[in-house]
Amino acid sequence: MIDVEKYVGPRLGGVIRKLMNTEHSDHLGITMKTPFTLVLVVLICGAAVAAIYRLIFGIGPASNLSDLWPWGLWIAFDVLGGVAMAAGGFLIAAAVYILNWKKYKCICRASILNAFFGYLLAAISICLDIGRSFVIWHPMVMWQVNSIMFIVAIHVVLYTSTLATESSPMVFEKLGMNRALDRVNRLMVGIVLFGVLLSLLHQSSLGAVYLIAPGKLSPLWYSTYLPYMFLVSAIMMGISMVSFETLLTGKVFNHEPPREVVLGLARGVLITGGVYFAMKIGHLITGPGFGAVLDGSFLGNLWLLEMAVGVVLPLVLLSFRSVRTNFDRIFMVNILVIVGVLQNRLNVGIFGVSEFATRAGGDYFPSTMEWMLTVGMIAFAILGFKVCAKYLNLFPETHH
Questions:
Q1: What does the pLDDT read at residue 317?
Q2: CA end-to-end distance (rounded Å), the chain
Q3: Which of 129, 137, 154 is nearest to 79 (CA)?
Q4: What is the CA radius of gyration of the chain?
Q5: Is 56 exposed, middle or buried (0-12, 13-18, 19+ CB in 10 A)?
Q6: What is the pLDDT, as a whole number, of residue 397?
Q7: For the CA atoms of 121, 126, 131, 134, what is the dihedral angle to 10 degrees?
Q8: What is the number of domains present in the chain?
């Protein structure tokens, strides 16, 4: 056993020792020293190198972005996609603390933690994507309430802080800080309500960002209703992500996924997926028309692929009771929805503006460092979740 106090002092050393105690989670059988963990650490180190290089030498040498193509992988995937995947946090928190749906309490902590990592990585991506990363703090003191970019920035900061507060009871329990734990629990309903408001606004505001580019974004995706479509698709993806991680952690961490919870989440995907399908078809009818997606063009095929994988196929499959009541089939449907909504975010953020940027002389494909940073941040989220499952009481209903 390493003498922690020798390096960090007795007070901080005692805190670290308490956090590293596994009395609440040894029953999950989680082993940290595995080849998979080593791979995650290597990927994280690669991302750290890429981030340092970008901060020292600038965004130009580190990426393939340009004035004609200012947003790429870091925004389309890391921010738009990552925030959508984090939507399950506010949904489950609202279900448990506001609607008092007690059956979802067993997955509440894991859902909120997953959302926290999603927003944390989105914040890091935004910081690295802007030209002057070292002035990222300016929106906190230099308010511009008429700017949609200010709205996005302030939402990310506030909701990330809210998610950290919602996750704090696990840490307070571990450290035996009963007074702090009691205070947070008393305020939790208000905290969750504030977080739900922030998340609803933020999910839609990410779509609203693209309303400022009507001449750049393809008509297949540009719509005055884009903020609402972003919100509904994020809810669909958030539910699928919660179901996906519930089933996956059940297999990996050796505990039985709660059946009623998984079936309820599947019904939620079916309902929100139907609403989203109606919105997309409505936009197609009143906007570019069916001919725009059936003309064999690259963008038309991407629209069809996005809808087929992320909406139509999941809805068809979930319409069968044999699928809605089978864990393995629900797991596959969750993957389809996640992939489909991620494709939508890539379509809006990258492919949908490709025709305009190409006509203006721009060209873009993510650089090696862009890929390194994105993959490394995903690895960081996975490893962080594993560490929390190991050392914190992340699944209290499985602890006896």
A1: 96
A2: 27
A3: 129
A4: 22
A5: exposed
A6: 60
A7: -70
A8: 1
Does the pLDDT at position 175 exceed 50?
yes
Q: What is the structure's pLDDT at 1?
A: 46
Cα–Cα distance measured from residue 198 to residue 208, given in angstroms and rounded to the nearest whole number: 15
- pLDDT band, residue 201 (cuts 50/70/90): confident
Instruction: Read off the CATH number of the domain in which 277 is found.
Output: 1.20.1630.10
Asked, for residue 189, whether it belongs to a domain, the answer is: yes
**Two structure tokens written together for 180:** 């702090």
Residue 21 within a domain: no
274 with 127: CB under 8 angstroms? no
- Report helix, strand or coil for 77: helix
* Residues spanned by the domain of 197: 65-364
Q: What is the largest CA-CA distance in the chain?
A: 70
Tell whether the torsion through CA atoms of 148, 149, 150 and 153 is positive or negative. Answer: positive
The predicted-structure confidence for 322-370, as pLDDT tens digits, reads as follows 999 999 999 999 999 999 999 999 999 999 999 888 888 888 999 999 9
Q: Which of 133, 71, 35, 39 is nearest to 376 (CA)?
A: 39
Domain membership of residue 220 (yes or no) is yes
Classify 142 as helix, strand or coil.
coil
